């Protein structure tokens, strides 16, 4: 079997290209690995330096805190001692001042009460005198008014009764007069009066 | 007005009217009332009507009804019951002096004492002694009261 030489050349060129690509890839990988190693190393260095710094800061902070706490405790003890002393003094002072104020206000209150009481007594006395006088006047007025009213009412009742009595007597008198007249008339008189009435009615155009 | 000339009061006229009405209803019936009151017979006789003759009776009743229905009533209130003679006399006077068809409607009221209260054709006159007495007392009321 014969192979065309062209295929041999094509095969060689292909192998060459593949080899070239392989070389490029390997080279790139090596460069990347080198760069990655450098970054990793740098990170480690940075990390280690940061840890050292933090440790230093923490140490400083702890020392400082201890100092502050110690100082604070000392001051607290001192303040407490001072406060105990001040509290006693303050209490004494406060009691003294309070007693003074209480005494002052108590005196003032007593004075005011005494004045108010005196004023009220005077006012009450005046008012009572006025009321007694007014009541007396009112009683007199009331008595007069009552008497006038009673007199008027009695007069009214009297007039009413008299008027009613008069009306009753009047009615009886009228009725009695009618009966007397009626009995005193005979049939003929009645007939005459009827005829007279009819004639009068005719004359006055009542018919 | 011939038949009812001698009828003077409303009471009599009403009685005659109701009798005439009943007679007219029964006139042509074989059964029912066929007798007349003495007053009706008297009236028929005074006008020359023979009540045995149906046609004359019918005419008489018709005329009587017409005349009685056309009468004018004068209301007369009096204190006592009046005699028939006086009523006849009064009614005649009334027919001569006031109205030819006038008739009296008499009412008795002793409270008016005497005289009469007259009402005719819508006009009213109180001419009773009771009214006069009332007026007199009203006039003299003050004077009488002072004397009491």
Provide a descriptive summary of the structure in words.
The complex is a heterodimer of chains A (207) and B (148). With 207 residues, chain A is mainly alpha-helical. Helices cover 95% and strands 0% of the residues of chain A. With 148 residues, chain B is α+β, with helices and mostly antiparallel strands. Chain B folds into two domains: 3-69, no CATH class; 72-147. Helix content of chain B is 51%, strand content 18%. Chain B has helices at 10-26, 38-46, 54-69, 84-97, 129-147; strands at residues 72-78, 102-108, 115-120, 123-128. In chain B, a hairpin with a 2-residue loop joins β3 and β4. In chain B, α1 (10-26) packs antiparallel against α3. At the A-B interface, α1 and α2 of A face β1, α4, β3, β4 and α5 of B.
Offer a quick outline of the entry:
The complex is a heterodimer of chains A (207) and B (148). Chain A is mainly alpha-helical and 207 residues long.
Q: What structural keywords apply?
A:
heterodimer; A: 207 residues; mainly alpha; elongated; B: 148 residues; alpha+beta; 4-stranded mixed β-sheet
